[in-house]
Structures are given as C-alpha cells and as structure tokens.
C-alpha cells in the first residue's frame, strides 16, 4: 500500500543547531515533493517544492533534499530558532495528478 | 499568492444535522480542495472542486455525505450532511492559484467541527 512516513514523535532541538526532518514514502512515484509548516489552530503554509530531477533546494535557512532511489526527502532548518517550532508536513504529487497527498507531520520543538 | 478565509471558524452541532462551510479566496483560482484533519492525523483530501464541473471525490468520501458547490472562481462550500460524532474534525479548504500539484497550495484557517 502507499505510505508517506514522517517521524511520529516530536523532535527537540537546541536553539542554533540544525534540525533535520525525514519524509519516507513507499509505492509512490512522485513528480514533486512539497514541505509545509503548520502552527496550532492554523492551516498549513507552503515552504518549499522540489522536483524529482532536483537533488537539493534551498531557501534562506531551509534546505530540502530529494532522493528518489532511497524514496526519501530530508528537510533541514539551519541556525534554528524557537520561532521555528511547529509541525512540518511533507506532501507528494504524482505525474498528471492535480492533488497532493500529505504525511502526518513531525512536531518540532526548538529549545531556547 | 492567495488569501483564503473560511466560515464558520468553529461550530458545535447535534447529531443528524448538517453544516455548510464556506471558503472564500481573494483571487480567481481554477482548483480548490477540501481536506479533513483529525487530531494528530494528516490532512486527508475529501474532494477537488473545479468551477463549472462536478467535484471529484476521493475514495471513502461520497457526494451525498459531503456535497460541494463551486459557483464561481473565488468561492466554494462544503456541506457535512447527517452528521455523527465521527465527523468531528477540522475541515480545511485550499486553493492552487497556479493550478496543478507542481504549484503551492494556500490554505484557509480551518473550521473546527464538534458533533455531539
């Protein structure tokens, strides 16, 4: 069956360190992979999109990698800050499909 | 980009009743989506709503239970019909101004529904 797996447990990271979140998938052939941030009581907010033929994408302190052989994406936040504390969701989109499928998300806590 | 608003933000309803959730986008968009998010769970796509055509429902969701309207390019409604406590959830709408899964989606703040 198709699965998108993210760390179900919360991730605690010391302020200033790099936070790395993992998204693994099975039985998908994604054309695009997106990362979103969700704060309590709010809708998700788009962060980054990476295509299957891209290995890495950066935006300010954020970096996403995409390894279609490992079927995995890594999401990095460098120089993390308490304001980065949130739930981070990965989402996959397949070719010729207009919808995206979300993982459950990983809760990230940046400790001051 | 797009700014999306939803009404109501929350509601408490009795079993057997129906609730209509409104979603307004500040710009014209081709594609709008309705999701459900239960506590601690991922967003589950209910249906895709395109203006001028019937909504496309995902497996496990049917039109009789979740009728959707899309009267124009900036507005959509989702009705949760004949509600039961299992329908208690957060309902989110989203839009993709660029169209397609290769563009970002913008989300509304969600409607928190509790069914007694």
Task: Report the average pLDDT across residues of chain B.
Answer: 93
Largest sheet descriptor of chain B = 7 strands, mixed
Radius of gyration of chain B: 13 Å
Unreliable stretches of chain B (pLDDT < 50, length at least 5) are: none
Assign an overall shape of chain A: globular
The strand count of chain B comes to 11
Write the layout of secondary structure elements.
The complex is a heterodimer of chains A (112) and B (116).
Chain A: E1 3-6, E2 11-14, E3 19-26, E4 30-38, E5 45-51, E6 56-59, E7 62-67, E8 72-77, E9 86-94, E10 101-102, E11 106-111
Parallel strand pairs in A: 2-11
Antiparallel strand pairs in A: 1-3, 3-8, 4-5, 4-9, 6-7, 7-8, 9-10, 9-11
Chain B: E1 4-7, E2 10-13, E3 19-25, E4 31-37, E5 43-50, E6 56-57, E7 68-72, E8 75-80, E9 89-96, E10 106-107, E11 111-115
Parallel strand pairs in B: 2-11
Antiparallel strand pairs in B: 1-3, 3-8, 4-5, 4-9, 5-6, 7-8, 9-10, 9-11
Write a compact overview of the structure shown.
In chain A, 0% of the residues lie in helices and 58% in strands.
Question: Can you walk me through this structure?
Answer:
- The complex is a heterodimer of chains A (112) and B (116).
- Chain A contains no helices and 11 strands.
- Chain A has strands at residues 3-6, 11-14, 19-26, 30-38, 45-51, 56-59, 62-67, 72-77, 86-94, 101-102, 106-111.
- Chain A is globular.
- With 116 residues, chain B is mostly beta strands.
- Chain B has no helices and 11 strands.
- Chain B has strands at 4-7, 10-13, 19-25, 31-37, 43-50, 56-57, 68-72, 75-80, 89-96, 106-107, 111-115.
- In chain B, strands 2, 4, 5, 6, 9, 10 and 11 form a 7-stranded mixed β-sheet that branches. Chain B has a 4-stranded antiparallel β-sheet with strand order 1-3-8-7, with no helix packed on it.
- Chain B is globular, with a radius of gyration of 13 Å.
């Amino acid at each position: 069956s198709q699965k998108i797996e993210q760390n179900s447990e919360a991730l605690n990271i010391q302020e200033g360190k790099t936070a790395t979140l993992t998204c693994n998938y099975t039985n998908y052939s994604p054309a695009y992979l997106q990362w979103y941030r969700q704060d309590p009581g709010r809708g998700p907010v788009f962060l980054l999109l990476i295509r299957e033929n891209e290995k890495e994408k950066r935006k300010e302190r954020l970096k996403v990698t995409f390894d279609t052989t490992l079927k995995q994406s890594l999401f990095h936040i460098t120089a993390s800050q308490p304001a980065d504390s949130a739930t981070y969701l990965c989402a996959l989109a397949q070719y010729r499909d207009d919808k995206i499928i979300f993982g459950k998300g990983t809760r990230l806590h940046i400790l001051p | 980009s797009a700014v999306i608003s939803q009404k109501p933000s929350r509601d408490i309803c009795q079993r057997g009743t129906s609730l209509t959730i409104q979603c307004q986008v500040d710009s014209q968009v081709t594609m709008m989506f309705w999701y459900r998010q239960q506590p601690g769970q991922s967003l589950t796509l209910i249906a895709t709503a395109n203006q001028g055509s019937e909504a496309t429902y995902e497996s496990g969701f049917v039109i009789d239970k979740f009728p959707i309207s899309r009267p124009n390019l900036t507005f959509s409604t989702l009705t949760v019909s004949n509600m039961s406590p299992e329908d208690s959830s957060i309902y989110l709408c989203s839009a993709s101004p660029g169209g397609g899964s290769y563009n970002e989606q913008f989300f509304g703040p969600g409607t928190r529904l509790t069914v007694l």
